[in-house]
């Protein structure tokens, strides 16, 4: 088992179909970073000259100063040539700099987080060193929850990306567990992604509950963008043919290496909306699908702990007739998203899932 039990739960669902649909462009990168900044960390690093490193001589080294009873440490100049070490030193200097304000430090950290998730040439050792360095940097300035949550999503994404590297997984799991345990009390209102990470038992924020906002957010997400297109264009056949395949890929026990943890949260948001369509067979199948994610019968899939709590919250709300205020909606106020009509009371709950 490559995932820490306190953070992950294995789950099982069946796969119905393997057909793909080419209605949408495949040009977008699969690893989706919804809040990626312009520019890059490496561009910023390369635009700054690398200073020479002044180091002290080893203790006990002889020096003529000892003849006069004083013992200042001798120094030597070391030119750091390792690009990784140069980049780490650059980041450390910037975080300690008094000339950079908090916004600039947050932006640089966000760029570094994007770099770690996107660059496939970084070694396991370097990834771990970078993750520790980011954690250490939080004490250098008043790091806001925005960047701390991005760091947690980064750790989750790196776990997905490197799931076969057991040594790295164990190290990243420890960092993730310690970071989650150190989360402080948050203000009542927090933004998207932060809420779903820290308060999953409270459900989704408005961005994910409002269909038009979620659809806009998923415009560049290659795995979920087609599902969003099918929902908005009232194409239930695409949903019934492809939903299980997409969910299986996203929550696989051996996940693809180009999958971000934010894609997984967005996938749960898609399922959340599909619980409340006017097509009863779709609603019931999605409910069964989400229950199978939680039940963990065959241990073929896994969930992060925040994902497990989020799905449990959505299913509990579905069973509660008083929980109408937490249902998804359109901008026009409707909670059904395939057609404007309400779900018929006499609709079959089991027939027609594959018959649209």
Query: Rg, please?
Result: 25 Å
Note the gap between the termini: 40 Å
Helix proportion = 40-55%
What is the domain tally? 2
Biased composition (Polar residues): 346-356
Keywords: Signal
Region (Disordered): 331-356
Signal peptide: 1-22
Please characterize this protein's 3D structure.
Helices cover 48% and strands 4% of the residues. The chain has 356 residues and is mainly α. A two-stranded antiparallel sheet has the order 1-4. A two-stranded antiparallel sheet has the order 2-3. α2 packs parallel to α4, α10 packs antiparallel against α11 and α12 runs parallel beside α14. The chain is elongated, with a radius of gyration of 25 Å.
Show the helix and strand layout.
Blueprint: E1 8-11, H1 41-46, E2 53-56, E3 75-78, H2 83-96, H3 102-118, H4 124-137, H5 145-161, H6 166-181, H7 194-198, H8 206-209, H9 211-217, H10 222-232, H11 236-250, H12 261-274, H13 280-295, E4 301-304, H14 305-319
Antiparallel strand pairs: 1-4, 2-3
Helix pairs in contact: 2-4, 3-5, 4-6, 5-6, 10-11, 10-12, 12-14, 13-14
């Amino acid at each position: 088992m490559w995932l820490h039990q306190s953070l992950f739960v294995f789950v099982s669902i069946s796969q119905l179909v393997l057909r793909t649909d080419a209605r949408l462009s495949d040009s977008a990168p699969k690893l989706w970073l919804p809040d990626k900044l312009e520019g890059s960390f490496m561009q910023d690093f390369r635009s700054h000259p690398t200073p020479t490193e002044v180091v002290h001589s080893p203790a006990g080294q002889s020096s003529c100063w000892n003849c006069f009873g004083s013992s200042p440490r001798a120094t030597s100049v070391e030119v750091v040539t390792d690009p990784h070490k140069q980049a780490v030193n650059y980041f450390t200097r910037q975080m300690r700099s008094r000339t950079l304000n908090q916004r600039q430090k947050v932006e640089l950290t966000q760029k570094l987080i994007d770099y770690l998730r996107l660059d496939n040439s970084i070694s396991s050792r370097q990834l771990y060193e970078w993750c520790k360095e980011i954690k250490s940097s939080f004490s250098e300035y008043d790091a806001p929850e925005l960047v701390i949550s991005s760091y947690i999503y980064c750790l989750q994404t790196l776990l997905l990306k490197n799931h076969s590297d057991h040594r790295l997984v164990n190290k990243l799991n420890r960092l993730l567990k310690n970071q989650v345990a150190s989360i402080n009390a948050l203000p009542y209102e927090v933004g998207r992604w932060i809420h779903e990470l820290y308060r999953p038992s409270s459900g989704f924020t408005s961005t994910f509950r409002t269909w038009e906002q979620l659809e806009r957010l998923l415009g560049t997400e290659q795995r979920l963008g087609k599902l969003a297109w099918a929902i908005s264009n009232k194409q239930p056949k695409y949903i019934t043919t492809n939903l299980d395949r997409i969910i299986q890929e996203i929550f696989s026990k051996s996940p693809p290496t180009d999958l971000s943890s934010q894609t997984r949260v967005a996938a749960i948001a898609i399922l959340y909306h599909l619980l409340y369509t006017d097509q009863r067979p779709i609603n019931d199948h999605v409910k069964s699908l989400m229950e199978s994610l939680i039940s963990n019968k065959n241990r073929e899939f896994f969930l992060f702990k925040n994902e497990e709590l989020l799905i449990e919250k959505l299913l509990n709300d579905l069973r509660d007739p008083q929980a109408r205020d937490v249902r998804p909606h359109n901008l026009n106020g409707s909670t059904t998203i395939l057609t404007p009509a309400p779900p018929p009371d006499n609709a079959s709950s089991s027939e027609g899932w594959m018959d649209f």
